[in-house]
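Design a sequence for this backbone.
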């Protein structure tokens, strides 16, 4: 709920600031200057605003797709863990029990240690990778008795590789974000889009206020949406670790 309150405050602040600037510029005589430059300034503003709109739309779509992909990878990782456990259920002891123990330890590490770090945008340590390596060694050194157990061992190894890949995708999604150069382009484009209308005169103060406040609020709201979506494990997206919690319930 605090996310939406913050977004509303950002928009209200932008609207208030825009209203103040419009009133000041009108009182300083910008209307006469704006009428003289209306034609040329309008063409330039259309180009700047159009390029900025394309950039914002591209980033929002990319972040939306990245969030969906991250959620799919989380589910894939959790499902693959369950598949490893089910495949290892036919292996001889002590490999069978050790695999389940390591899977539970891995899930605990992901939920209790890695998820808070990803939510805060911090790097994740190697504890999870170490547990997966122990899983790989346990499965590799298991001594199957017969073709059926040999097939189950191969399937467990294949599913563990799926866990490796999905884990790497999850960690990459948590650490990507929006490049600082892209943020610079967004801020400059927003500033230019906000400054150009102040060069134009309007038919009256009220209409110019409404136009400028609407433009400012929209641009600020879009920037806020990008900021909230750049990390799929926090902010407005906030992918939960429910898939791993459900995986524990499905372990044999």
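Sequence:
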């Amino acid at each position: 709920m605090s996310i939406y309150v913050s977004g509303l405050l950002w928009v209200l602040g932008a609207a208030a600031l825009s209203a103040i600037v419009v009133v000041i510029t009108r009182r300083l005589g910008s209307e006469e200057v704006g009428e003289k430059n209306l034609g040329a300034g309008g063409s330039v503003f259309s180009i700047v605003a159009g390029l900025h709109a394309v950039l914002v739309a591209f980033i929002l779509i990319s972040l939306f797709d990245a969030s969906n992909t991250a959620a799919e990878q989380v589910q894939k990782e959790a499902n693959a863990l369950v598949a490893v456990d089910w495949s290892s259920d036919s292996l001889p002891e002590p490999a069978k029990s050790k695999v389940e123990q390591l899977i539970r330890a891995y899930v605990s590490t992901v939920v209790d240690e890695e998820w808070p770090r990803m939510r805060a945008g911090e790097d994740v340590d190697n504890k999870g990778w170490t547990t997966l390596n122990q899983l790989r060694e346990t499965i590799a050194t298991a001594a199957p008795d017969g073709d059926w157990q040999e097939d189950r061992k191969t399937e467990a190894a294949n599913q563990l590789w799926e866990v490796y890949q999905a884990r790497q995708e999850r960690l990459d999604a948590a650490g990507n974000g929006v490049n600082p150069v892209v943020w610079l382009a967004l801020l400059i484009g927003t500033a230019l889009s906000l400054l150009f209308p102040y060069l134009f005169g309007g038919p009256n103060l009220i209409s110019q206020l409404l136009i400028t406040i609407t433009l400012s609020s929209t641009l600020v709201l879009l920037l806020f949406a990008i900021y909230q979506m750049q990390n799929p494990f926090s902010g407005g997206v906030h992918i939960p670790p429910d898939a791993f919690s459900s995986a524990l319930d499905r372990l044999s």
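The longest helix spans residues 38-88.
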